[in-house]
Amino acid sequence: MDKRERFMGHVDASGECWEWLGWKDARGYGKATSDIKPRAKDWAHRVAYRLFVGPIPDGLTLDHTCRNVSCVRPEHLEPVTRAEN
């Protein structure tokens, strides 16, 4: 099983948003096993973006264009500056 398949095992992709089913913080942001650091955790939406799109551009953060912080659908994640987010 590759990293994408393993990641998607924790996602409900049946709706418009891909809902993270794993651990979430109090604000609803998901945490996942990092795709780049062994045995580390990272925000699930950041892992999704890197797995399905590529590296997050330096100096940018990901904005949930759907406004659902539990969403990990790459099409709903847009790299923006902190000020834009």
What layout of secondary structure does this protein have?
Blueprint: H1 3-8, E1 11-12, E2 19-20, E3 31-33, E4 41-43, H2 44-52, E5 61-64, E6 77-80
Antiparallel strand pairs: 1-2, 3-4, 5-6
Unreliable runs:
none
| Widest beta sheet: strand line-up | 1-2
Radius of gyration: 12 Å
Give, in order, the helices and strands: HEEEEHEE
Describe this structure in words.
The protein is of the alpha+beta class. 18% of the residues lie in helices and 21% in strands. Strands 1-2 form a two-stranded antiparallel sheet. Strand 1 and strand 2 form a beta hairpin. The longest helix has 9 residues. It starts with a helix and ends in a 5-residue tail after the last strand.
Quick summary of this structure?
With 85 residues, this protein is α+β, with helices and mostly antiparallel strands.
Main features:
18% helix, alpha+beta, two-stranded antiparallel sheet, 85 residues, two-stranded antiparallel ribbon
